[in-house]
Every structure is written in structure tokens, then in C-alpha cells.
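retry 2 of 3: previous attempt timed out while embedding FE2/S2 (inorganic) cluster. Reduced batch size to 1 and resubmitted. Inputs unchanged:
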Amino acid sequence: MPVVDKCPHQNMNEIAAILKNQGTGRDACVKVLQEIQGIFGYLPAAALQYVTDHSQITKRQIYGVATFYERFRFKPLGRHHVQVCRGTACHVRGAPMIIDAVAEELHLHGVEDTTEDGEFTFEKIACFGACALAPVTVTDGQTRGAMTADKMRKLLKKIASQAKTAHATDQPCPRSTMPTN
Ligand code: FES
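retry 2 succeeded.
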């Protein structure tokens, strides 16, 4: 069984097991992608190559499905996951300013959602279901209400400075970049 990535977690045995469970027909595409993303947190190119080499699922079909459903991603999540609500209650209480502050602070442009250094992934959420706390953000699983753009900038600066020290010797690996909560 070929191991097509240096990361030990990207052993293709896991992909082979998914194909065995879900089948190798074209109709298994969505479930196969869901399971791959469940393992790695994204869809690694090597895993997708393995799928196309060992099933009837084509690259074209994969990219069609993966780009249709927003939840699929082709890049690993950053080490820190920053989520800002863009729902109505949060919107009227200043969420757009928080969203702008995060994008500016992390130097993210257009559809980019992850910083170049893989430190942060930024996501806008439709509603956390905590509208009474608006505007709401969740950073690495921690919910904060009554957020402001200023507080968000300070929080991101603090995380970035801690991360510089803590992750200075990290090896790139999809699982090590996934949030633990
Ligand atoms: S609208 Fe933001 S938590 Fe509901």
C-alpha cells in the first residue's frame, strides 16, 4: 500500500478502509469525501489521488462535489480557529467591524480563510444560537459575547505572540494543525 505523504497520519490504509466501507462507485463520492475530511480535517491531494486511482470516482466529480458543499476544504485548518457570527443579532451589534478587524489583523484577503503560516483559520458563522450575547465569537472553542473589534484585535495579537513561542518547533502535519476542541 503506497504511503504518498511524509506525514505518518496520511497513511493510505485509512483511505483504503474508507473505500472498502463506502464502496468504490461514483455514488459513494460524498461519503468518501466526508470520511476523508473527518480524518484529516481537510481533503489532502494525496488522499484524493488515491481515491481516483482505486475507485470509479473521478477527479472532476470530486472537485464538483467538494466545491458545491461549503464544508469541504482543500487546505488544512490553521492551528487556531477563529469564528465570528454574521447572523442578524450580531450584525446589528457590530459583527461587520469585528469581521473586518479579524481579516485585517490576519492579513486575509478575498476568499482566503487561513493565514500563510497556517496559524489561523477564520470562519464566519450564520448563528451560534447565542444571540443574547451578540456579537458572538468563538476562538479555539471558547465562546465570547459582547465582542468588539478592539477586543478581537487584542485577542488575536495575544494568541499570535503565544503561538510564536509555543509552535516554533512544530512539524507540519494535518492532525497537529487541527483544533482539539
Ligand atoms: S446571530 Fe449571532 S449568535 Fe445568533
